[in-house]
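Hi support team,

I've been running sequence recovery on a batch of backbones for a student project. Most finish fine, but this one hangs at about 90% for roughly twenty minutes before it completes. I'm not sure whether the input is malformed or the queue is just slow. I've pasted the structure tokens below so you can try to reproduce it. Let me know if you need the job ID as well.

Thanks,
M.K.
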């Protein structure tokens, strides 16, 4: 993928390893860094606002959101509703504002991928994207393992590091991805 639009939950998931005291990104892979250096990433302003709000809390998600915001020079921020061929207001997709804005932006930019971790809404998201590949974080990590820059062991370790913080332990999608590593 050359161009990606990312939503809040996926960016936070990718930033969890750096925020987790048990994982050392100086000697282990940093998946957020891989994403931001591997392709052109754009986020809607609504996602940036959600990250800023999340960063105000005092937990690992706040630390992860802070890590994403600290890397903001490596991604573009756009207001999707000001682009050509976009609606005047966000459509009612039954998703939060950031996720909906990410879909509108991915469609407007003809993005290669939409990075989202909305596992319970993947079917809905697939239904409203136009020729954009929907990529949840575990799938991205598996792709990094199959095409580089990760090994399968590193990808599995990253998923297992993110998993307890994102309630992925009982998620059948995540467990299936882990089985394929």
């Amino acid at each position: 993928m050359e161009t990606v639009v990312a939503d809040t939950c996926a960016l936070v998931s990718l930033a969890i390893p750096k925020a987790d005291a048990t994982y050392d990104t100086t000697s282990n892979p940093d998946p957020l860094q891989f994403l931001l250096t591997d392709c052109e990433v754009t986020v809607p302003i609504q996602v940036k606002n959600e990250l800023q709000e999340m960063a105000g809390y005092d937990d690992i998600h706040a630390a992860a959101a802070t890590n994403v915001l600290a890397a903001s020079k490596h991604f573009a921020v756009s207001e999707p509703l000001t682009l050509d061929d976009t609606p005047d207001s966000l459509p009612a997709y039954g998703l939060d504002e950031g996720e909906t804005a990410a879909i509108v932006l991915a469609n407007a930019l003809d993005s290669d991928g939409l990075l989202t971790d909305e596992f319970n809404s993947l079917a809905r998201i697939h239904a409203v994207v136009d020729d954009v590949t929907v990529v949840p974080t575990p799938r991205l990590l598996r792709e990094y393992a199959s095409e580089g820059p990760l090994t399968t062991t590193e990808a599995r370790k990253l998923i297992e590091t993110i998993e307890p913080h994102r309630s992925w332990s009982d998620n059948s999608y995540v467990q299936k991805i882990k089985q394929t590593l």
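--
Follow-up from support: It reproduced on our side and the slowdown came from queue contention, not your input. The radius of gyration is 15 Å. No action needed from you.
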